[in-house]
Specification:
CATH topology of the largest domain: Lipocalin
Order of helices and strands: HEEEEEEEEEEHHHHE
Strand order of the largest sheet: 1-2-3-4-5-6-7-8
Structural class: alpha+beta
Number of helices: 5
Number of domains: 2
Radius of gyration: 30 Å
Largest sheet: 8 strands, antiparallel, barrel
Shape: globular
Number of strands: 11
Distance between the termini: 108 Å
CATH superfamily of the largest domain: Calycin beta-barrel core domain
CATH architecture of the largest domain: Beta Barrel
């Protein structure tokens, strides 16, 4: 009888423990914070200008790059955004403080990249975003930049062209040439002088007349073009899609263009069929094309 009693008690205890183990604690879902100041969302675009540079080192970083600061979310406790500049696409996180009609932001890049830093800026009257960026790494060549950005909306337009009122000269890749004075240049009774002169590549007008996004190019369209022409025509396709260029050689041609807004570091899935075909053709001709060099003032 005792054995039966102990068996029944054991079953009851086991049953109670099992029921206790099945109890699931339900945690109330976190209520999402209300988003505020949504009129500030979007792209703020302009020049990212050197303010503090180590002058004891060679200048490798450009004085000015085009930057896009994208504001994606604002609540009372956090701000989420993104910075796109010089081939870098970095998430931003931080806070905003309101002071009258001025919104003050401090947004930080993650810090796991050598080029990361902190953005400290204000937006006044919803029209102008102005402030500074300070590098995390105090040993960088450029440790601080300033900027004044305007609100702009990016929209892909295959018909936009490079402006035709500029000379497209590759100042980033000069070629040195030793020059000796001619007889007409030297003074009587003196020896001719020899000096070194910088020569530069310059693009032809084809880059402002050929649209490589809307027209399917033929070999006859480009066979007589210089290497720099082909490079610019190809990269104009990517610029129209808002690609952020890493190389200074390319950035020098697009950063000053009004319609160009860097929004991404990968636009491959946005290219049209015509653009993809033209890119392949232009790349093929670039391999064998040559350039003429000449001297130009800066």
């Amino acid at each position: 009888m005792k054995k039966v009693f102990y068996l029944v008690v054991s079953i009851l205890v086991f049953s109670c423990n099992s029921k206790e183990r099945k109890v699931v604690k339900i945690t109330p879902a976190k209520v999402a914070e209300k988003e505020i100041m949504t009129e500030l969302y979007g792209s703020w675009v302009g020049d990212f200008i050197v303010q503090e540079r180590d002058t004891t080192r060679p200048e490798k970083e450009r004085y000015s790059n085009k930057i896009n600061i994208i504001i994606k979310k604002i609540t009372d406790s956090e701000v989420i955004g993104q910075s796109v500049v010089a081939g870098n696409n970095r998430p931003l996180a931080g806070k905003m403080i309101i002071n009258g009609s001025t919104a003050h932001f401090i947004l930080k890049e993650p810090g796991d990249d050598k080029n990361d830093g902190v953005f400290d800026f204000e937006i006044k009257n919803d029209t102008l975003l102005a402030g500074t960026w300070t590098a995390n790494n105090a040993k960088k060549e450029v440790t601080k930049r300033k900027f004044e950005l305007a609100k702009k909306e990016f929209q892909y337009d295959p018909n936009v062209m490079l402006p035709n009122d500029s000379d497209y000269i590759d100042y980033e890749n000069p070629k040195e040439e030793q020059i000796t004075q001619s007889e007409e240049e030297i003074e009587e009774g003196t020896e001719p002088e020899t000096y070194v002169e910088n020569l530069y590549r310059i693009a032809s007008e084809s880059i402002v007349t050929i649209n490589s996004s809307t027209k399917k190019l033929k070999e006859s369209d480009i066979k007589n073009l210089k290497k720099i022409d082909l490079e610019i025509l190809r990269n104009t396709i990517f610029a129209r899609h808002g690609f952020s260029f890493k190389t200074k050689t390319v950035r020098q041609f697009f950063d000053s263009v009004e319609w160009y807004i860097p929004v991404s570091t990968n636009v491959d899935d946005q290219l049209t069929a015509v653009e993809k075909e033209n890119i392949l053709l232009l790349r093929r001709f670039e391999k064998y094309a040559e350039d003429n060099y000449d001297s130009f003032g800066r």
